Amino acid sequence: MAELVFREDPYARDCRARVVAVTEAGIELDRTVFYPTGGGQPGDSGTFARADGSRIRIAGAVKGAGADAVLHVPAPGEQFPAPGEEVEAAIDWERRYRHMRFHTALHLLCAVVPAPVTGGQVAHDKARLDFDIDMDRLVKETIEAELNRLVGEALAVRARWISDAELDAQPELVRTMSVQPPRGQGGVRVLEIEGVDLQPCGGTHVANTREVGPLAVVKIRSEGARNRRVVLGFA
Ligand SMILES: [Zn+2]
Fold it and tell me: What pLDDT, in 10s, does the model give residues 100-147?
């Protein structure tokens, strides 16, 4: 089980770590700043700096078999480190920061469009959510204005853990969540944008909505009988 540095500090760009396992599938560290692909957010890319000064380019990160296991996947042709070796693991920060801004923007979109979410994806230059909603209830100008109002309000964004006991004691909390929390794991990590959105989420986010920056609704279109897709970009 690795220490997932990005959970407590999504702004951490690098960390010293020890290689604990190496397989063809990837490299496991005892701690990492690399977010693994999941929840619609792409895994991080970056580098491992070795003691001899050389670097291993890491093309991506995915979830491993165990709980909290992260597999760092080297780019084609790169060397693999040896178990026990110490490396300085660093993510491609510019790329990750865009993911954080877009991911936070999707939480805002979730709050602006009051309908069940059926899917979502963050990419480098856009992000989308799919909703189960009638097309005529999605008005580009209205959604865009609401999103940019929330960005402009500079709202605090924070992740915290809520225990099952705390959830049981506050049924109204669960009702306000757009996604129902999983039970039986002792607790759940929730993302809260004060007064706007509260839901279980394991992704990385910016600390304040102002960091998202101005948003544009790039596209609204039908994806099948019930799905309506709203695509966002940075304005
Ligand atoms: Zn999230």
Answer: 999 999 999 999 998 999 999 999 999 999 999 999 999 999 999 999
Of the candidates 228, 87, 83, 111, the residue with the CA atom closest to the CA atom of residue 179: 111
End position of a domain, from candidates 59, 91, 123: 91
Q: Of the candidates 91, 109, 137, which is a domain's last residue? A: 91
Q: Check whether residue 72 and residue 142 sit in a common domain.
A: no
Strands (E), 92-226: 117-122, 127-132, 157-163, 187-193, 197-200, 215-223
CA 228 – ligand 1 centroid, Å? 20
Report how many domains make up the chain: 2
Residue 31 and residue 87 in contact, taking contact as beta carbons nearer than 8 Å: no
CA of 14 to the centre of ligand 1 (A): 21
> In angstroms, what is the span from residue 201 Cα to ligand 1's centroid?
5
What distance in angstroms lies between residue 84's CA and the mean position of ligand 1's atoms? 33
0.70 exceeded by pTM = yes
Q: Are residues 109 and 182 in the same domain?
A: yes
Query: Which residues constitute the domain of residue 139?
Result: 96-234
Q: Is the domain of 213 the same as that of 136?
A: yes
Burial 27-56 (b: 16+ CB within 10 A, else e): bbbeebbbbbbebbbbbbbbbbbbeeeeeb
| Same-domain check for residues 74 and 137 | no
C-alpha of residue 103 to centroid of ligand 1, in Å: 6
